[in-house]
Amino acid sequence: MNDQYRETEAGQRYARAAFDLALETKVLDKVHGDMAALKDLLLSSAELRTFVSSLIYKSAVKLSALTAVTQSLNFNALTSNLLGVMAANGRLGELFPVITAFNKRYALHNGVVTAEVISAVPLTAAQLDSLKTTLAQALGQSAEINTHVDPALLGGLKVRLGSRLFDASLKTKLDSLKFALKRA
Fold this sequence. Notes:
Layout: H1 9-24, H2 28-44, H3 46-53, H4 59-70, H5 77-88, H6 95-109, E1 113-119, H7 125-139, E2 143-149, E3 156-161, E4 164-169, H8 170-183
Parallel strand pairs: 1-2
Antiparallel strand pairs: 1-3, 3-4
Helix pairs in contact: 1-5, 1-6, 2-6, 4-5
C-alpha cells in the first residue's frame, strides 16, 4: 500500500506534537510501540484501512470503531488522545502520514537511519541482516530497513537513504547498456 509512505504537512504537524509530548512525558518508547502496532493493524486489514480513510463515515464513528479494534492493544493515553484529536479535526485519514512522520522523528532521535530497499524478489532474513550490517558499517550508525518488491527491476537492488539513491538493479544496467548501444 503506497499510502503508508506518503507524507503530508498535516501528518508532520500531528507527529511533531505527539513526539514532543511523548518525549516530554517520558513515554516515547511506548508511543513508538503503539504507532508500530497501529501500522501493523492497518496493514493487515484492507477493510479497516478503507473504513478509516473513507469520507462516507463521520469521524466519531471511525474513532469508536478504531478504539474498539485497538482496545486490546492497551495504547498509551497519549496515543489514544492523538487519535481522538485527529478524529475531532476530521484527520483520521492522515494516520499513515502521521505514523510515517513519527517513526522518522523517532529514528532521528535515536540515531537510526531509515533505508528504503526495493528488490525484484523478497529478501531473506539472512540477506536483510547482511544489508543492515553493511549499511551500519558504511554509515557509522544503525540502519532500519523498509523493503518493497518490484518485479520490474529483474534483479539487484535500489537503496534510498534520504535523498540519495543507490541503484544496482538489473533493469537500470540494461537500460544504460541499451542507451549506450543507441549512441554508438
